[in-house]
UniProtKB/TrEMBL annotation, chain A:
Its main location: membrane. Keywords: Cell inner membrane, Cell membrane, Membrane, Sugar transport, Transmembrane, Transmembrane helix, Transport. The keyword Transmembrane helix applies. GO terms for cellular component: plasma membrane. It is found in: Cell membrane. This is Xylose transport system permease protein XylH. GO terms for molecular function: transmembrane transporter activity. It is a multi-pass membrane protein. The chain crosses the membrane at residues 30-51, 58-78, 108-129, 135-155, 196-221, 241-263, 275-305, 321-340. Part of the binding-protein-dependent transport system for D-xylose. Probably responsible for the translocation of the substrate across the membrane. It comes from the Bacteria.
């Protein structure tokens, strides 16, 4: 990112001086950043335990389980689409890995590999149907959401005979897979879990992808104006399909964490989580209409989610307040984003 | 890959110089025998024969025949809804024709995407400009044809080069941009149009298509665009120039295709038609009475037309009238 910091060119006299502050205000994630700081200070005051390293690590872990998905969902939203199947697709991925390995008694890594293929395929099918039919992604992914919900329940009962998958804890490869997807690290006395690292790496890679690669340029373009993008030669269809597959990939990562953090999966889980991912992305500055947003914003959105979620526990309040906080943050952050967007899009 | 090709092309273009110090084209012989001035072979850069297009049950274009040569300007004129944009969208790969043949360098083609057209060296300025309002100017300029550095997974945008080229290309057009980081949606309509034109001029390696490029422009910028058309022609590009304004078309055009309600109502070489005839043809016989008024209204552009005609004569030697 140091390449960004080059000496400013001689400015036109029609450009007013823009200080650091107003430059910062032009960023998509500003609303979320302000919200995150306010929330952090707030919880530090009402619940001093919040500031301890280990509770902070817990907040980060909670954030990462939303944040990993928010990365894919934020990119998809910048590309102008929604994915309502993202929540249950996480569980589909975990179920695939666990049921396949268990049923065929193979090394769990085979199941993990198959789950990746299935997750990417779900994304591909979502994107492909969308591009073929030109239907809104809301409808297409609502349909896949319902189908996956049904498949998760039906197939789990059919294969495993229960609503939860049988335990795979004693199977070959379980320990090594757990070491990757659900490990505990103790760094300087602080317990950190592997999804936190995966999350940070994902955010870093996608930020770079968005801002500094051709594909990133195309993602903004297909979300901003699909027809214009097509007219100048952007591969619109493949960009969008790729974005859905990206959500699939994130779903696979989180699904594998869910599976290996325990050793079994509840087939009915995941429903409703798609909204948490979308909320994180929207709080983070992604426009519902596409073409604007950032990966780091989605991460901050997820962090706000994690802080509100755990902060309420540390403050020893009734968790009923959680949804209220989330709603308030969503409202405030989107209002700030709206103001920013009006400035940017003053056609 | 393609971006690199474009690039090398671009440097070649600049080396040749934008004011036509490259291969000079003998307009005289060009108008007599219909051969390609650069390759001296009897093929057209692009050739349409009996091309037709319908959108569902709407017939937008039928039986259109025209040719585009290197170093020549083909003007397409017609009223609103005549099918001009439809025609160029077929050439630019945005739509596909249902009837007739479309040849590039003598080879029959049906372009399935604008990418394919760009790879064949055809760049277009669309009437609706095709810019993404929320994206910065420089990103719009290079959208779809980005310059990259680095290899493999570390291939990344060459932001510095792209910003510089954008700034320079627009400065060449007389558009002095405040800041290329500005979202393009914040520019004025004419400024946006200039960005779209500068982009097409930059990327059009063989052919340049302009759909009503002067519609939103001031007199100075209109002049710059018409001058650009001449420069592109002198560099050996085939240019298709779409306009409503015969005063803009006549000074720069070598060939004129007149469209009306999706049909060709005339296809002329410059030597076979005068400005008045062209204007009359466009207006149609019945509307001749109105034409007098219209011409008066257009009077303000007369200066520009004269100025440009003088320039045409200057850059291309004497023109047959
Ligand atoms: N996508 C489309 N679907 C249906 N009909 C279309 C479509 N595009 C163009 N048409 C129709 O085709 C006809 C020709 O349109 P076109 O845009 O080519 O006209 P034009 O000559 O460019 O007009 P203008 O001077 O106003 O730009 C019009 O009657 C228009 O309604
Ligand atoms: Mg048109």
């Amino acid at each position: 990112m140091t390449t960004l910091l080059k000496p400013p060119p001689a400015l036109d006299e029609r450009v007013g001086k823009r200080g650091m502050v107003s430059n910062l205000l032009g960023r998509p994630e500003i609303g979320a950043l302000v919200g995150a700081i306010v929330l952090f200070i707030f919880f530090s005051i009402v619940a001093p335990v919040f500031l301890q390293a280990n509770s902070f690590a817990t907040v980060l872990y909670g954030s990462s389980t939303i944040g990993i998905m928010a990365v894919g969902v934020a990119l998809l939203m910048i590309g102008g689409e929604f994915d309502l199947s993202a929540g249950v697709a996480v569980i589909s991925s975990a179920l695939t890995a666990s049921l396949f390995s268990w049923y065929f008694s193979v090394n769990v890594w085979v199941g993990v590999g198959l789950a990746l293929v299935v997750s990417l395929a779900i994304g591909f099918v979502n994107g492909w149907i969308l591009m073929k039919t030109k239907l809104p992604s809301f409808i297409v992914t609502l349909a896949t959401f319902l189908m996956l919900t049904g498949l998760n329940l039906a197939l789990t009962r059919l294969i495993g005979g229960s609503v939860a998958t049988p335990s795979i804890a004693t199977m070959d490869g379980f320990a090594s897979a757990q070491a990757v997807f659900a490990n505990d690290f103790t760094i300087a006395g602080v317990d950190l879990k592997s999804p936190v690292f995966i999350w940070i790496i994902l955010v870093a890679i996608t930020s770079w992808l968005l801002l500094r690669t051709r594909v990133g340029n195309w993602i903004f373009a297909v979300g901003g104006d699909e027809n214009a993008a097509r007219a100048v030669g952007v591969p619109v269809k493949w960009t969008k399909i790729g974005l859905f597959m990206g959500v699939g990939f994130c779903g696979w990562v989180l699904g594998m964490h869910n599976l290996f953090a325990f050793d079994a999966v509840q087939s009915g889980e995941g429903i409703g989580n798609e909204f948490l991912y979308i909320i994180a992305a929207v709080i983070g500055g992604c426009l519902l209409t596409g073409g604007y947003g950032s990966a780091i914003g989605g991460a901050i959105g997820a962090f706000i989610f994690g802080m509100a979620n755990k902060g309420i526990v540390y403050a020893q309040w009734n968790p009923d307040w959680f949804k209220f906080f989330l709603g308030l943050m969503l409202l405030l952050a989107t209002i700030v984003n709206l103001i920013v967007k009006r400035r940017a899009d003053s056609k | 890959m393609t971006a690199n090709d474009m690039n090398s092309n671009e440097t070649a273009k600049h080396a040749a110089g934008p004011t036509g110090t490259g291969p000079t084209i003998d307009q005289e012989t060009l108008l007599q025998n219909e051969t390609d001035p650069l390759t001296h072979t009897p093929v057209h850069l692009m050739e349409l024969e009996g091309v037709g297009k319908h959108y569902g049950n709407i017939i937008a274009l039928t039986e259109v025949t025209m040719a585009v040569d290197m170093g020549r300007v083909t003007c397409v004129l017609g009223d609103n809804g005549a099918g001009k944009s439809t025609l160029i969208k077929i050439i630019a790969g945005l739509h596909q024709h249902d009837e007739g043949t479309f040849k590039i360098m003598g080879q029959e083609r049906k372009l399935t995407s604008p990418r394919e057209a760009l790879d064949s060296g055809i760049a277009a300025v669309y009437q609706d400009l095709a810019v993404v309002g929320l994206m910065p100017i420089w990103r719009n300029f290079f959208l779809g044809s980005e310059i990259t550095t680095g290899r493999g997974p570390f291939r990344r945008l060459d932001v510095k080069a792209m910003k510089e080229i954008t700034k320079n290309e627009l400065a060449d057009m007389g558009i002095d941009l405040r800041d290329v980081e500005q979202p393009i949606g914040q520019l004025s309509g004419g400024e946006r149009q200039c960005v779209a034109i500068a982009r097409a001029v930059h990327f059009g390696a063989k052919a340049l298509i302009l759909d009503e490029p002067t519609a939103a422009l001031g007199v100075k910028q209109s002049g710059v665009v018409l001058r650009y058309i001449l420069q592109a022609r002198d560099r050996g590009l085939g240019v298709i120039f779409i306009t409503h304004n015969p005063h803009h078309a006549f000074p720069v055009g070598d060939r004129f295709l007149l469209l009306k309600r999706g049909k060709s109502i005339g296809y002329y070489d410059k030597k076979d038609i005068t400005l008045d005839e062209l204007t009359a043809q466009m207006a149609g016989g019945a509307e001749l009475a109105e034409l007098a008024h219209e011409l008066e209204a257009l009077g303000s552009h007369g200066d520009l037309a004269q100025e440009l005609e003088a320039e045409v004569a200057e850059t291309a030697g004497q023109l047959p009238h």
